[in-house]
């Protein structure tokens, strides 16, 4: 497998075995060809993670200068509400931006553009961070670059892992998609019909009061490692699409039985239930990913998004890919979980093609589709 392409003060993330953005808010200007290096600041805040990072591009490399994150963690049994998450982002933005600049060892004058997540995501948190990005752009007299959150994940994954032209499994709290690149677009081959994988796991965690620190999905993963009994749960794959609301309803019903009767009365444990939920959901994702690989003739899978940190998911996808003579590329939490550096990287790729987002058109779009983006920087 290819080594990580991004230079970073941290060791490369573990890997399992084997234009411009067209939207209602886009314009482009002629690309600049007289520069030999570019620096972008990226601001991410589509959910409960506030991330700010700075990246340096040369014509042949990308170097992470800083990549900081601050997470809003709600009490066990609760989710994060948009208004509370937005307040967190507004409260922490300035301090995190100052720290990112200091850690990068640069001044605002060195920054070429300010990039921000324009969507998809939660409206209030997105808007809070967009306001912060606009403020920096105005203070520093720098151009703005709006970035599609999903494309940010994909481009960072490609850069870090060295994956060439993979089928992308994008799994996070708000998104679940199987994607492949073709003719300047990231084409969606399959996706969730209702709720996303991460949202399913988060809502299940609330029923059992599983901690949100550091993340409910991570804590479910640790409990699942101790599970021994595979319980029957709905398995819903429709062509290339999946449905997760039915499996969530069934898992919540079993959780209610467990809370009422206890492990002896219910005949299974919390660990068994977490194990069963993971195994069933991940099997569905493996199926549609394999079908996409067969359709496009790809031998590579790239896993991105917060749920992509799950080691069991990586293991199952790797097993499938190896059976097909292929390989899987995955990352750790530094790059899987929402972060500012992925927005800086994708934004700078677009900026270098001449893309800019006018201030008066820098509104956020909660349903900014992955395939709405014209990927001018790829062949």
UniProtKB/TrEMBL annotation:
The keyword Transferase applies. One of its GO terms (cellular component) is nucleus. A divalent metal cation binds at residues 149, 153, 170, 338. It is found in: Cytoplasm; Nucleus. Pfam families: TsaD. Residues 70-344 form the Gcp-like domain. One of its GO terms (biological process) is tRNA threonylcarbamoyladenosine modification. This is N(6)-L-threonylcarbamoyladenine synthase.
């Amino acid at each position: 497998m290819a080594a990580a392409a991004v230079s970073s003060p941290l060791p490369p993330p573990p890997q399992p075995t084997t234009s411009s953005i067209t939207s209602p808010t886009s314009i482009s200007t002629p690309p600049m060809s007289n520069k030999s290096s570019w620096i972008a600041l990226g601001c991410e805040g589509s959910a409960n993670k506030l991330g700010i990072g700075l990246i340096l591009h040369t014509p042949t490399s990308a170097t992470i200068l800083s990549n900081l994150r601050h997470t809003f963690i709600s009490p066990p049994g609760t989710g994060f509400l948009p208004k509370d998450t937005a307040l967190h982002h507004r409260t922490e933005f300035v301090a995190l931006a100052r720290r990112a600049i200091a850690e990068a060892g640069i001044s605002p004058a060195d920054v070429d553009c300010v990039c921000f997540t324009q969507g998809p995501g939660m409206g209030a948190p997105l808007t809070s961070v967009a306001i912060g990005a606009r403020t920096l752009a105005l203070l520093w007299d720098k151009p703005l670059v709006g970035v599609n959150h999903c494309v940010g994940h994909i481009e960072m994954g490609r850069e870090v892992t060295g994956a060439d032209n993979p089928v992308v499994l994008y799994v996070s709290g708000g998104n679940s998609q199987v994607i492949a690149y073709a003719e300047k677009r990231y084409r969606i081959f399959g996706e969730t019909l209702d709720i996303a994988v991460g949202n399913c796991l988060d809502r299940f965690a609330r029923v059992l009061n599983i901690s949100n620190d550091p993340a409910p999905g991570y804590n479910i993963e640790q409990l699942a490692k101790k599970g021994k009994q595979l319980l029957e749960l709905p398995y819903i794959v429709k062509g290339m699409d999946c449905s997760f609301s039915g499996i969530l309803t069934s898992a919540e019903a079993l959780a209610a039985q467990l809370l009422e009767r206890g492990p002896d009365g219910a005949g299974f444990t919390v660990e068994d239930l977490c194990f069963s939920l993971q195994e069933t959901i991940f099997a569905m994702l493996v199926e549609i990913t394999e079908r996409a690989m067969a359709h496009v003739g790809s031998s590579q899978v790239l896993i991105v998004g917060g749920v992509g940190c799950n080691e069991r998911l990586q293991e199952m996808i790797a097993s499938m890919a190896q059976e097909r003579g292929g390989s899987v590329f995955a990352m750790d939490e530094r790059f899987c979980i929402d972060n500012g550096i992925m927005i800086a990287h994708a934004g700078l790729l677009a900026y270098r093609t001449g893309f800019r987002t006018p201030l008066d058109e820098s509104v956020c779009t909660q349903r900014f589709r992955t395939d709405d983006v014209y990927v001018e920087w790829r062949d």
